[in-house]
Amino acid sequence: MKAFQSRHLVKYRLFWIRAAFFTCTAMLLSFGVFAGEPPEEKDANPSKEQIQIVADKLITNNKEKFAEFLGDVRASQGNFVIRSEHLRIYYKDDPQNQANQEPASGQGLIKRLVASDNVRVSFEEYTAKTDRMEYDLDTQVVVLIGEGSTMTSGKNILTGSKITVNRKNGQTQIESSPQQRVRAVFHPEGAFSEENTKE
Length: 199
Known about the structure:
By secondary structure, the chain is α+β, with helices and mostly antiparallel strands. It has two domains: 1-29 and 48-123, no CATH class; 142-199, no CATH class. It is built from two helices and ten strands.
């Protein structure tokens, strides 16, 4: 019984050591370090690309499995870039399974990103502004939440209280609220199509 508990404890500690190492490494890395490197082949799955984060402050909570970055936060994963005042990273729930993974798959420990306070997001051909953004790394679904949330592509502008974008299939859904109806400005040669939007 003691041997089992000891093995369980070692696996659990390994998980949090890896999680802490990944988080601290992300804090220390500068985006400029990679500016001179030649571009790599684009990964078919953007969620497997390296995540880089810089901020003024980092707080970790191992019990609730999250790390919170505060103050002029910038996070990037490939062409997916988030700027905000607060960014919280939630880790996956099962430390035993994660402890058996290769250390190189550090971002595989992360399941969700939540940004708040003056959030600006850019990915593919889109840019967005919102009060709160949630991003699920497994499903690659981006959710923008807040009255007056906007997403633009060229001259096209979409506005709503909740905008959901599926990066896998390109579908966009805009929802209204009692205070604000969905608004859209389309230009003939724009990237948005009416078939991909729902009120």
